[in-house]
């Protein structure tokens, strides 16, 4: 990797990422900011990089159906000229429920990466959203590595086996800083259940991990929510995140729940617990 990510980064919907939040994330010692559902022109990346001095900004992800590879490549080269070495382009196929044109997902990923390569986007500056073995193997072969979303440390362990020792593995993990388990699960469930438990790609991945249809019914069983959303005090949450590193991750993308609340108090407490 030619881009420094550190061990922990912050994942958030792009509309929630203000320059002020980016500055605080950098000050606290996190290594990267990940933009969820990244807009095609990536102008928000420029805004965040201009507001900060050294932190890396990554996309998690640019959707292949919504942004052409030519537009993604043009945005990459523009950002790289202005902020060399501080941008990582994360791309992914999205979900059939969200895209009317969804077809031949593996072939589409290969073609998209071919076109990025033709547009001279370096492979080590691109990562692929990947869950299953075939997509993970493609990520290792054609990009810097994989950015799995909605996964547990058990998935990270399996993903590392597929990726091999050298590819980047940067899973996303959700957290709720609350020692009341019932309250924490209640805060987590709306984001996990809608839309993710309704999307077949995520459901298939959870089934591969040993969860059942009953676990995914409604807003998710307690054991499923506990695996996908770390909760407790800062030290307990930090231990859950570190479990990904112990399982083979290089970097963990932290998403603070519930969405729509100010994540800074949680990120401050967690920075101390992670010794950033």
Automatic annotation (TrEMBL):
Residues 19-116 form the Luciferase-like domain. InterPro entries: Bact_Lucif_Oxidored, Lucif-like_OxRdatse_MSMEG_4141, Luciferase-like_dom, Luciferase-like_sf. SUPFAM superfamilies: Bacterial luciferase-like. Keywords: Oxidoreductase. GO terms for molecular function: oxidoreductase activity. Pfam families: Bac_luciferase (PF00296). It comes from the Bacteria. Its EC number is 1.-.-.-. This is LLM class F420-dependent oxidoreductase. It comes from Georgenia alba.
